[in-house]
Design goal:
Length: 538
């Protein structure tokens, strides 16, 4: 797990960040000609000192290559987003300046930087009338990016055969991966024999908001890679986060509520996102970004783990917790929310379950997502009252609230079946989950821990709900009971923001619960629990 921006290195150490992404902007390193070189592009101590400091701290450095200098632009009006001149010449031609730049950097930093990302978010189109939009970083055609990538791949691998060349970070929600699909076809055409492995070693996604959809997005990408014979390639999440609006030091208009959430909800999102990503088998996850810096100070999104004054936001506590929780973990299972048609919830509810494993522990993450459409038609009794599947084995009182069995486990409840759920009229879900150890440690989203033993009932969260948009007014209480070999987890849903990219996927869910059970010789983790392709985190 890592974070972008090399600033605040001491705080990054304390948070447990294990890698960092550093932009090597070509226009800064070779500002005036192909023979010029600025050895202080990364800072006043020199670029080497910056990189050496990070590696000395035990953090891997990933280089990001982008930004065409003025002297090398095909179209001066496009600025640093321009296609470089001469990229159609052989990669090792002296006049292929892009190839020479990639080779020089890869050779110079061999052993210190062994992963290079080629440009950033190239799929974001230009703005109105062809003007550069806020996030436009590439103005060339997809075929030109494919050529840019092919040159970089050949040059970097010639300088450092053991390196990893990573695709641009694809902002999936802009076009649902359409640009990436087209690029794969172009790369396959450039490398028909597969000699150069499609000219990349790892795919790269930028995933913001809607963590409930991340698992499927990654798995869909894996299927496409496998269909082209690239199933051995890693998948990275090069950026992830969700924008908070309620930091007193940087309050912003929450009008775009599909994008912006509270800092408390941002912390819960990070738990959901990391769990889903690891379950999908990603090799790296990075939070954008470590520090707000000048961008936020001038009106940009306050996405930093650390704000402009150097204070840690709540998401920082969550990052620190997750960097330890998921170290050495791999994915086991992802169970999407079974979306029950409760009219009191507007047909929108669902508990998501993610299971991961470390050598000594099984990790289960649960959250109750709001804002997703139900899959099943309403079920009613003879009086027309909605009811839940009989197979869930749970009992209900006259008000529709769940009655927990006191001495025996519910009939028919399977630990990995999503139908072991019921919802009361307030929108609280109770998830019945079979215990696999004599005791467990339960965590909230900030890493606050409590030990749960048979007969215990614990309150994990008990706080006032935000007054706007809450599915249930009053207290947001998350509780867990351990009875007769089962955990009964009561989970409130989150606020029903409208995800502007996909209304079926909630922007955020309710407070997540993390259950960590020790693994011993008497505890089975299941036949499916093997590390997925693509490596493990950190």
């Amino acid at each position: 797990m890592g974070s972008t921006r090399l600033l605040r290195a001491d705080q990054a150490d304390a948070l447990g960040a294990r890698w960092t992404r550093i932009p090597f902007i070509w226009a800064y390193l070779q500002p005036s000609s192909p023979t010029s070189w600025n050895s202080f592009a990364l800072g006043s101590r020199g670029s080497d000192a910056v990189v050496n400091d990070e590696t000395a701290r035990g953090r891997a450095v990933v280089g990001l290559l982008l930004g065409t200098p003025a002297w090398a632009r095909q179209n001066a009006a496009w600025g640093p987003a321009s296609v470089p001149v001469n990229i159609d010449r052989p990669w090792n031609s002296p006049s292929n300046y892009w190839g020479a730049y990639c080779y020089r950097l890869a050779k110079h930093y061999k052993g210190r930087i062994d992963q290079w990302i080629i440009w950033n978010e190239v799929s974001i189109p230009a703005g109105k009338n062809g003007a550069a939009g806020q996030w436009t970083q590439w103005r060339g055609a997809p075929a030109q990016y494919a050529r840019l990538l092919a040159v970089a791949y050949r040059a970097i691998h010639a300088a450092n055969p053991g390196t990893t060349v990573v695709l641009y970070g694809d902002p999936y929600w802009y076009d649902r991966g359409a640009y990436l699909d087209n690029l794969f076809a172009l790369l396959a055409g450039l490398d028909p024999t597969g000699r150069y492995h499609g000219y990349f070693d790892a795919a790269n996604l930028h995933l913001y908001i809607g963590a409930a959809g991340f698992y499927q997005i990654v798995r869909d990408l894996r299927r496409e890679l496998a269909a082209r014979g690239w199933g051995d390639k890693e998948v990275w999440i090069g950026e992830t986060n969700i924008e908070p609006y309620d930091d007193p030091a940087h309050y912003i208009d929450p009008g775009r509520m599909g994008f912006r959430v509270t800092m408390d909800e941002q912390a819960g999102f990070l738990v959901d996102a990391f769990a889903a990503d690891i379950a999908a088998g990603v090799a790296r996850v990075e939070v954008y970004r470590m520090y707000d810096g000048a961008e936020a100070a001038h009106g940009g999104a306050p996405l930093g783990i650390v704000d402009v004054k150097g204070a840690l936001r709540p998401i920082g506590r969550t990052f620190r917790f997750l960097s330890g929780l998921f170290k050495g973990a791999h994915g086991v299972a992802f169970t999407p929310g079974e979306l029950y048609p409760d009219p009191t919830l507007g047909g929108k509810a669902g508990v998501f379950k993610v299971v991961c494993a470390r050598p000594s522990a099984r990790i289960t993450v649960l959250w109750n997502a709001a804002g997703a459409h139900a899959r099943y038609p309403p079920l009613t009794d003879s009086a027309g009252k909605p009811y839940y599947r009989a197979a869930d084995g749970l009992s209900y009182d006259k008000d529709g609230d769940i009655v927990l069995p006191a001495t025996s486990h519910p009939r028919g409840v399977d630990a990995d079946a999503p139908w072991s759920i019921g919802y009361d009229k307030a929108g609280t879900a109770t998830y019945a989950l079979r215990a696999r150890a004599a005791e467990a440690t339960v965590y909230d989203k900030f890493g606050n821990a409590m030990v749960l033993r048979p007969g215990d009932t614990k309150t994990i969260n008990d706080r006032d709900m935000a007054p706007d948009g809450s599915p249930a007014r009053g207290r947001a209480r998350t509780t867990i009971s351990f009875k007769a070999g089962y955990y009964y987890v009561q989970l409130r849903g989150g606020r029903s923001y409208t995800n502007p990219f996909d209304r079926r996927i909630p922007t955020v869910g309710g407070d997540p619960v993390v259950i960590v059970e020790p693994l011993g010789p008497h505890v089975r983790t299941g036949a499916r629990e093997t590390p997925p392709p693509g490596g493990i985190l950190g």
